[in-house]
# Entry
Amino acid sequence: DHAKETGRRWAWHDAEVDTAISRKQNLLAELDTALEKGQIWTVYQPKWDIPLDRLDGAEALVRWTHPERGNISPDIFIPILEKADRIADLTLYVLDRALRDFSRFDAERPGLVCSVNISAQLLHDPDFINDAIARVGLASLDNSQVVFEVTETAALEDMEASIAALEKIRAAGIRISIDDYGTGQSTMSYLQKLPVDEIKIDQSFVRTLTTDRANALMVRSTVELAHGLGLKVVAEGIEDRECMNQLREYGCDVGQGWFVSKPVTADSFNSRWIQAEAGLTGKRAASG
Ligand code: C2E
Ligand code: MG
Ligand code: MG
Ligand code: MG
# Structure
């Protein structure tokens, strides 16, 4: 009886594991087609320059609209592509797309900053690093307008190799941001060692800033630490005005989150952010 029950449970478990595995394999097999058919695309989440009170730029975030499964979250498919060593293809696709879109935006609104997420493991792929640097160089943007966001846990693994790759990227004039800062084992000593330009405080600290005293302290002291080290600070996950006001008080440089805007398509970013801002400046200029 008991054996039967256990057997049944195992059979059920196997079936579930099988489904998960075949789904992963399907996704991997479908990657090239998805890229060709435009089922993989990018949205842009605006970043706000807090002291200047104006648009700073945007972060490219990848989207996969699957013909049968609908929208799949990057939190699901990015780790699968990373494990299968297919993340370079996807990243170069997103980078190209973002560079092309930003070259268009930059013609209207010069100086916008374009951030792209780079999986940490790609720091150990010299072909990818060379290719990515070359593509940025070919784009009409200034290289300093491009930011590579790398998660802190990744940068911490194999420090030596990571540092070499980060230095190469920075030597080309591209900027480096430490994404999801605070979720790993951030220490002052590694921040000093890593050749970076910016830290991006994780949304888990920012979202609860106005209700959680410990998180408020963490954010405030991080701003101070980063500025002391000559780094720029970005806060992600700003969901309301109180949070934005608090960050302004702390001296945070750049803010991102639903309060500013959710991620939007390239077309809406252009019409709602670039064109709208051009309209505003035009009006300001016209009225003296
Ligand atoms: P991330 O780079 O830390 O991006 C921030 C995530 O938080 C995005 O989710 C964004 O939509 C969401 N978010 C932004 N503002 C708010 C807010 O105010 N409140 C809340 N609750 N959420 C907010 P998304 O687009 O689902 O991306 C999730 C993660 O997937 C990213 O985290 C990044 O690690 C990864 N990812 C996305 N696109 C790419 C890519 O092109 N390449 C790589 N390697 N990873 C990517
Ligand atoms: Mg990011
Ligand atoms: Mg260039
Ligand atoms: Mg993040």
